[in-house]
Write a structure and sequence with these properties.
Blueprint: H1 3-30, H2 36-62, H3 65-72, H4 75-99, H5 108-119, H6 125-128, H7 134-166, H8 169-188
Helix pairs in contact: 1-2, 1-5, 1-7, 1-8, 2-3, 2-5, 2-7, 4-5, 4-8
Length: about 190
């Protein structure tokens, strides 16, 4: 392994983690009573999916590439649908929150949906690392996971600090962020 491999893997990690960072920021805004344990769980979930998806892509390139090519066209639609669903849910929770309580909790189901939605475009990275052997592919995916974990942790902390200042408006802002990310993934797929 050389330094170029590590630099490339870190750069991939940074690029892939930007959507997860934005969603982490939204989660920090949304959940005002986030514990350290929950913060680590959220960052780990995003890191896990950011590592898993390139490996799935790598496996597909080495086994069932024709099926993957068909799925690749659906990725922007899936990401848009999942992130819009979560964003709209945050708006609806905001209305319920006004009636009931000032703080909501991110469910495990929504966290998994977010992890998939923000990492589904990472399937394509399997193509870029296709020339790697399995050891290099796992190492690159691990580096991507570490970078994602660090970036998401910062996003959650920043969101948490801002969320306590924004109060109930944080849900609206978080929902807008998620829908915007979904639209960005969808629109950028056409260019």
């Amino acid at each position: 392994m050389n330094s170029v491999f590590f630099v490339n893997s870190i750069a991939l990690g940074i690029g892939l983690a930007m959507d997860a960072f934005s969603v982490s920021l939204a989660n920090g805004l949304h959940e005002c009573k986030m514990t350290k344990k929950k913060l680590v769980l959220i960052a780990f979930t995003f890191a896990f999916f950011q590592a898993l998806m390139p490996m799935i892509g790598w496996v597909c390139v080495h086994t069932i590439i024709n099926y993957f090519k068909a799925l690749e066209k659906l990725i922007p639609y899936i990401a848009l649908a999942l992130l819009s669903y979560i964003g709209i849910s945050m708006f609806l929770e905001k209305e319920e929150e006004d009636e009931h309580e000032a703080c909501t909790i991110l469910s495990f189901k929504k966290l998994i949906i977010q992890g998939i939605a923000t990492s589904i475009d990472a399937l394509s990275v399997g193509f870029t690392i296709a020339e790697y052997n399995w050891f290099y592919a796992i190492t690159a995916s691990s580096i991507i996971a570490i970078v994602t974990f660090i970036i998401c942790t910062f996003g959650l902390i920043i969101g948490k600090k801002a969320g306590s200042k924004l109060g109930r408006k944080a849900n609206i802002f978080g929902g807008i962020i998620l829908i915007t990310i979904g639209l960005e993934i969808f629109i950028s797929s056409f260019f």
